[in-house]
């Protein structure tokens, strides 16, 4: 990698890190672009060059955190054992992340307010594809009902996302979390093939 590309990548990483900290502490609206750039010794021009504007910077931060959330949820799936328990654990782990202050503020509150419908974010598309593949495998092995895999994946992902949004936006997230997890689990269990 030539020096110019390396410097650009470093500047981009510095801006994302500074924005992540500022957005988590102050929120998107209260975070100043001048403060963000000054904190890392860069100009507003570097921010515009890398992200277009403050909204573009938020999108990059959300994408980074959302990717970390997906990785965390996948680890929960891997620890769960069988495919069905893994699918359930992945959804529950995603919902539980709504209690993390950084996730709550940046991804679940400011993200949708500024960037629009989270189900349309690129990171959600990759989660959907992953869930669809798992659902297809569970249908093929007879664990889940014969149902359209994409429809089931969209509903599972949508339920987990909306449960997380509900937890994050509630006045008492700790009280809402067990209700959201129980409802998500009950809905997902409806996909299980009835015993013979």
Automatic annotation (TrEMBL):
Gene3D superfamilies: Tetracycline Repressor, domain 2. The keyword DNA-binding applies. One of its GO terms (molecular function) is DNA binding. Coiled coil: none annotated. This is TetR family transcriptional regulator. Residues 9-69 form the HTH tetR-type domain. InterPro entries: Homeodomain-like_sf, HTH_TetR, Rv0078-like_C. Keywords: DNA-binding, Transcription, Transcription regulation. PANTHER family: HTH-TYPE TRANSCRIPTIONAL REGULATOR YJDC (PTHR47506:SF1), TRANSCRIPTIONAL REGULATORY PROTEIN (PTHR47506). Residues 32-51 bind DNA. Pfam families: TetR_C_41 (PF21351), TetR_N (PF00440).
